[in-house]
């Protein structure tokens, strides 16, 4: 599959591009296959939205997706890479092997009903604020649609759906990459919920996180303060120095933190405190350089406050390696399918949500468009990055949220649970299916993608995980 001549690859790929917008049979076929399963997509998305299970605890969500795929004839390998909620589902045989990634974890600390105004749900501790319920549902629906296309056409090839837990700070895909689960894959595909439709080739920031744990000496804060050594002082001293570092970091770097434990009573000098840090940079070496300074700040804070500090690396992601050959193909498929149209009820809902925004980047109506293709730096981070250094990888975003919505917001939770989100998931499933059909029929495109991939990685590339050799942090959200 990967031995075709590059010259032939480029020639056939270019021919495939010409006139694609005018007529693209793959998108027509994909729409028919996916639309037959539109109710399935919405049902899966609704259940995972309701459960809102956080990283490495997505037991019901993972089981639902596995059972759905198993019922369609997929062979399931559950609990892969030492992660109980990770799985690989496979159908078909031979090459090419096309992988579709599926996420399903929720975010802690935010929740919202499906209402278009702020309406927290009492007692609910997490929400699908990044739309991963839609991500998992659409990827599974696309996998099933492709499975039926393979059967109906008799085409050779294998489709795999990778159930990838704990994207939000748990780096599930990094452990799956490290375990070699993508070594025989020809192309990997992914998508993500958003407030716009785009297959632009956006890179991401590499990142690493850790929990810094300070240990002091407890004492009565009024009666014997001199006998205490405050672990919280250690955390605050570290944070002060880290905040000073912001002035002296590269322009595209990011660093942020939350205090996850700071004591329980003001009159007790806390003997334990914890702060959770993220560091981001466009490349892995940049993360390493900033990280070394952050560790020094932690050590200095402990020395200055008479405390002791230790830290645990929680997750680490490499940046996305863009594959332009694949990205342009995905952009064509998305443009051939077009954007999303709201019903009158959805328009009224969207107007209510939009009223909560200050200076939104996109206006209502933009969900009907596909954004221009470009190659640019994105400031988020994703564990898809590690997959993209193991195999040529391509993705897209669809307008599952009201234009102007930020990820990790209550507005994203709300739309992810109702028909606007479901429409975006349906568009993603159709686009992924169309792209897979193209790849199964276009060996030259796969070869061109691999030529670009190997050139960008370089002749001496050796994969290195930013989280080292640690085991998956299955309890990091507990």
From TrEMBL:
NCBIfam families, sorted: amidohydrolases
Signal peptide: 1-20
Keywords: Carboxypeptidase, Hydrolase, Protease, Signal
Source organism, top-level taxon: Bacteria
Source organism: Henriciella pelagia
Record SUPFAM superfamilies: Bacterial exopeptidase dimerisation domain (SSF55031), Zn-dependent exopeptidases (SSF53187)
InterPro entries: Amidohydrolase, Aminobenzoyl-glu_utiliz_pB, Bact_exopeptidase_dim_dom, Peptidase_M20, Peptidase_M20/M20A_hydrolases, Peptidase_M20_dimer
Molecular function GO terms recorded: carboxypeptidase activity
Name of the featured protein: Glutamate carboxypeptidase
Gene3D superfamilies per record: 3.30.70.360, Zn peptidases
Pfam families xref list: M20_dimer, Peptidase_M20
Residues of the Peptidase M20 dimerisation domain: 209-300
